[in-house]
Amino acid sequence: MKIAIGADHAGYQLKEELRAALEAKGHEVADFGTHSSASTDYPDYGRAVAEAVSRGQAERGVVVCSTGVGISIAANKVPGVRAALAYNTDEVALTRQHNDANVLAMGARYTSAKQAEEWVDIFLMTEFEGGRHKRRVDKLEQGSTKEG
């Protein structure tokens, strides 16, 4: 699977660990930065990953900042993106099953590399259930593309 990944300086180390784990599992990873722990702005990386997913250049995205909140907000500004903040394995699965989330956000301050790798595996393996959930996701999409 092709995965877009990005993080600000606070999420840099966790992003690097996730990138290596994803590549070791045979995924193609497009790394949108940052590439060091020097101070950066999370919206830049959230948007870059989200745009890659929105354009179909990646099937899914993973973003990391200190809390995961700011970078998920940035990603959700891009039409067609449904970024969800990870808290536990059950919620990660439900973001895929019920919300068809296509970007997973994590907070490096609160997430170990082991947890993050487990959550990303669940995020990538879990299918969208469709059915009644599709109607709801369609409403999300209509709201994200309305003008005015």
Instruction: Tally the beta strands.
Output: 5
Query: What CATH architecture label applies?
Result: 3-Layer(aba) Sandwich
Helix proportion range: 40-55%
The amount of beta strand, in percent, is: 15-25%
Specify the number of helices: 6
> Would you identify the regions where 5 or more consecutive residues have pLDDT less than 50?
none
CATH H-level superfamily: Sugar-phosphate isomerase, RpiB/LacA/LacB
Overall tally of structural domains: 1
What's the order of the H and E elements? EHEHEHEHEHH
Overall geometric form:
globular
Sketch the major β-sheet: 5 strands, parallel
| Sheet with the most strands: spatial strand order | 2-1-3-5-4
The CATH topology turns out to be: Ribose 5-phosphate Isomerase B, Chain: A
What does this structure look like?
- With 148 residues, this protein is of the alpha/beta class.
- The chain has a single domain (2-145), classed as Ribose 5-phosphate Isomerase B, Chain: A (3-Layer(aba) Sandwich), CATH 3.40.1400.10.
- 47% of the residues lie in helices and 16% in strands.
- It is built from six helices and five strands, in the order βαβαβαβαβαα.
- It has helices at 12-24, 42-54, 69-76, 89-97, 113-125, 132-145; strands at 2-7, 28-31, 60-65, 83-85, 103-107.
- It has a five-stranded parallel β-sheet with strand order 2-1-3-5-4, with helices on both faces.
- β1 (2-7), α1 (12-24) and β2 (28-31) form a beta-alpha-beta unit.
- α1 crosses α5 (113-125), α2 (42-54) packs across α3 and α4 (89-97) runs parallel beside α5 (113-125).
- The chain is globular, with a radius of gyration of 14 Å.
- The chain starts with a strand and ends with a helix.
